[in-house]
Model the fold of this input.
Amino acid sequence: MGLQERLRRLTGEDKAAEGTTPADRQAKKNELQKRLDALLLHRPVVPGGKVIPHRQRRNGPALEDLLSGCEEVNRLGSYFKIELRREGTECHGSRKFSELERLNMEAAALLADDARLSAFDSRKALFLDTETTGLSGGTGTLAFLVGLGWFDEEGRFVVRQLFARNFAEERAVLAALAETASSKRYLISFNGKAFDTNLLATRYILNKMENPLTALPHLDLLHPARRLFSHRIENSRLITLEEKLLGFYREGDLPGSEVPLRYFNWLRSSNPYPMLDVFRHNGLDITALAALTVHLTEIFDSDGGSPHYASADFCAAARLCQDRGRPAEACSLLENLSRSSPQKATLEARQSLSLIYKRSSHWEKAVEIWEDLLKDNPENLFAVEELAKWLEHRERDFESAFRLVDNMMKKVPGLPEQEKEAWLHRHSRLQGRCRREHYRRSHG
Done:
């Protein structure tokens, strides 16, 4: 027995179909659909099958009395829209919104590992963050609040929130999102690739609607932020990045784990006051996305002396460039950093820079760095090892390589156990090559 036949038997449709015309059956389906819509809307059905428009229970103020928003209606129904505009001179922590207009799109493309972003205007970004009925996703999870951000024609940063006041308003919210996304060229989120866009894709499928986000190149800030700053920040939560990188501290912010409960309470009571914290939390997330985007892209333009970054941040940025196949950008970052005052990060920058020169066969520059490192610290194992490799394999100067390794092992007798075996092997190999070279010369 097939699935459709089982469903017809369970619902009694096979028996009900006996003695009825197709028109009768269609009318019955239409009536059932209207009743289902009414249940989802939490609205009564009046004679004629019409649905009463959404009205908030008047046991308190309406949403529009407390927020800068209003009810909107589109072809798929109604929803509540909240909107505010931030002037370019306004800040989120240490960052101004006007800085977003001058966004380095080459850097954005590097962060996203998507070359398409470099061709777009920074004003064509759509910032996205959702609040949902659950944190684990799944087909039963609804995105009841969709937060969006972008620049308007006057250069102000717009924060728009689309709120489904009940489950039935989801389709109208999805349609409103699609309309806004149609004029944008790329998407920016925080953990959106793993959660927000996947959830929205599911909702569009279930509602048999076309997903407007599928074709948009996507910069997810979570992963590059982790790559650039995990060496000095305990976790990669958005609120932590705000505090440590942007100097912005949220006071009385609603934990994300409490958001679903607030919405379910709203569905039962229509009390708007607990929802105010949800709207504020979502609005802060959108503005944080904008400020964090500026912070992550600007590091690639800095000369190494910016007060916004620690020296080790530039080393992390250079490693990211290397991983993305951009050695020239990595060199530029490390060269700027290596000119700063001596410190651990500067040492790392010089060592990393020398390896880039080595891989590109710029041996003169690489050797110069290794020799300078040895002048600063004769016990620098990295410099000794790289110089010994160069002397042995490139210059074929086995005696100089052996003296370098031999002197180092005498000066640094307490080598780490995991490295000692490798150094002993190198010492023995060079010693043997010196003997063979000496024998060849004397008997040549």
Notes: The chain has four domains: 3-41, 63-298, 304-360, 369-444. The longest helix spans residues 273-298.
